[in-house]
Amino acid sequence: MRLWGRANTEAIRFEGESRRLYLYSAHDLDVQLKDRPGNFIYARETEDGFEPLFVGEASSLSLHSVAKDKEGPLLKEATHILAHLSSPAAEERRSEVWDIVQEHRPAYNY
Predict the structure, then answer these.
(1) What angle do CA 10, 85, 42 make, to 5 degrees?
(2) In this predicted model, what pLDDT tens digit does every residue of 24-41 receive, in sequence order?
(3) pTM here?
(4) Is the residue at 6 inside a domain?
(5) For the chain, what is the domain count?
């Protein structure tokens, strides 16, 4: 598994199974994300970069800006939410999720 990037850098890169690189920005978990379609990754920062815990997509990233279950296991492990704006077409966003999940096998996608 390849881990990329650090918080406070310009972009966090995740490579999919297809070898395509996807660029994300890192945010604290309490960030208010934009009301726009996009992809997101709940991740844990490690010495080697970010470990993806859950990869998802949404028609509005703002739905994932405030975690509803702060006591849940995912949010006890996650240190950041990584996100980027994406296509309004759900199929394209889901294709990216699938590509990253197949490469990194995040625990909470299974």
Answers:
(1) 75
(2) 999 988 888 889 999 999
(3) 0.87
(4) no
(5) 1
